[in-house]
Amino acid sequence: MSGIDADFQTNRQKVGEEDGVAVWGPVEKPGKLGIHGTNVAVDWDICTGDNACVDACPESVFTMVDTPGHSLSDKKAAPSKEESCIFCMACESACPVEAIKVTPQ
Questions:
Q1: CA 35 to CA 65: how far, in whole Å?
Q2: pTM surpassing 0.85?
Q3: 3-class SS string, the chain
Q4: Which of 35, 39, 30 is nearest to 77 (CA)?
Q5: Pair 31, 71: CB distance under 8 Å
Q6: Cα(85)–Cα(67) distance, integer angstroms
Q7: Alpha-carbon distance 1 to 83, whole Å?
Q8: Contact assessment for residue 72 and residue 46, using Cβ atoms and an 8 Å cutoff
Q9: How far apart, in Å, are the Cα atoms of 2 and each of 7, 8, 18, 45, 54?
């Protein structure tokens, strides 16, 4: 498994929003969930839901949301408070599968 596509904003199309967070496709539930977020983005297709980013983030940017039926985990990290990010990169460093890409504004 490789990490998140660092150029997802160029290589993927924004297909909508979920709970106020941009979603970049493709999305074909439950197997393909896309990338959620823009400046703090999480590839839900490779996120294992281990809470490492939640624990590492000093600004509580992430919340765990239910993703029933996904093959890797039934919960994913959502960058629900993306605007609170201080770009410390702790979440990127903590993610064991490199599912997070932080792009400073």
A1: 14
A2: yes
A3: CCCCCCCHHHHCCEEEEECCEEEECCCECCCECCEECCCEEEECCCCCCCCHHHHHCCCCCCEEEECCCCCCCCEEEECCCHHHCCCCCHHHHHCCCCCEEECCC
A4: 35
A5: yes
A6: 23
A7: 29
A8: yes
A9: 14, 14, 24, 11, 21
Burial class for 12, CB neighbours closer than 10 Å (0-12, 13-18, 19+): middle
The two three-digit tokens of residue 85, written as one number: 């990010």
Per residue in 21-43, pLDDT (tens digit) is 999 999 999 999 999 999 999 99
